[in-house]
Amino acid sequence: MAHNILLIGGHGKVSQLLTPLLLARSWNVTSMIRSADQKATIEKLGQGQPGKLSVLVSSVEDVKDEGDAQKILDQVKPDWVVWSAGAGGRGGAPRTKAIDQDAAVAFTKASIHAPSIKKFLTVSYTASRRNRAPWWTDADWEGAQKVNNEVLPHYYKAKIAADEVLTVLAKERFDEEAKKGVPENERFAGISLRPGTLTDEPAGKVATGKISNRGKISRATVAESIVAVLATEGARGWIDIVDGEEDVEAAVKRIIKEGIDDVEGEDFEGQKERVSKL
Q1: How far is CA 13 from CA 18, 188, 221, 229, 261, in A?
Q2: Where would I find the NAD(P)-binding domain in this sequence (predicted)?
């Protein structure tokens, strides 16, 4: 089936690796970029591919609320949305909040509230959580605390807020569709793909599931993982992923079969309360 994908943050490093992989599946991609100066770079990614590539010049910084995001969704008409945008540490705390939290939350809410959109995948990071994962070592937890509280505090606050909105609202929609008798494989999938420290190494194999948060993973592998997750029926929830020894597609199928969701250990009621205030 030919899917129509809105890729938000299309000029990012992961997105530029991802775009040809999506198009190679005969999926159609609208790559959303912030500047017309980036358009030629993106258009080259679609050459010789079976899927159709469109470029939308529209800055995520202009998306202030769900209504703004909805206008873009109405224009593009995707059935899947991938969020791979980010402030990248530029512009200080205000810009990080504007992009990594406010715009991300706006697109998340608008996508989940659109019946025609069936999947929303956001690229987060392994340490984006409030509680210690039950399988983490002391060193894992200490490393996460250092990153979140000392190294990237503004980014952490923004990403965890967006992750929680996706978690809570995706579950609500999934449960509503279940009550209506929608088959499980046709219900909404909210996915937080959570890579370790990013590198520019070639694509390789992975470790996923209940893993350490201190691993690395190449951007190329992240791109391949996004495709595998989107293509695999039943993939949803939080998926931590780093370099490892398992084939990407096999790893994704395994965690689905085993029912692993790395959100385990988080306080869902607390998430609901915080999301209600956003």
Answers
A1: 9, 27, 12, 19, 27
A2: 9-232
Amino acid type, 228: A
DSSP 144-213: HHHIIIIISHHHHHHHHHHHHHHHHHHHHHHHHHHHTT--GGGS-EEEEEEE-EEE-PPP--EEESS--S
Q: Are 234 and 277 in contact (CB under 8 A)?
A: no
**Three-state SS at 278:** coil
How many angstroms separate the CA atoms of 128 and 194, rounded? Answer: 8
Q: Which residues of 15-40 are buried (b: 16+ CB within 10 A; e: fewer)?
A: bbbbbbbbbebebbbbbbbbeeebbe
Helix (H) / strand (E) element for 140: namely: helix 138-146
pLDDT digits (tens, 9 = 90+) for 152-208: 999 999 999 999 999 999 999 999 999 999 999 899 999 999 999 999 999 999 999
Q: How many Cα atoms occupy the beta-carbon half-sphere of 240 within 13 Å?
A: 22
Residue of 174, 245, 160, 156 whose CA lies nearest to 209: 245
Q: Is 32 within 8 Å of 8 (Cβ atoms)?
A: yes
pTM above 0.85, yes or no: yes
Q: For residues 93-106, b (16+ Cβ closer than 10 Å) or e, as one string?
A: eeebbbbbbbbbbb
Contact indicator for 171, 192 with CB cutoff of 8 Å: no
In angstroms, the CA 271 to CA 161 distance is 9
Joined together, the tokens standing for residue 114 give 């659109």
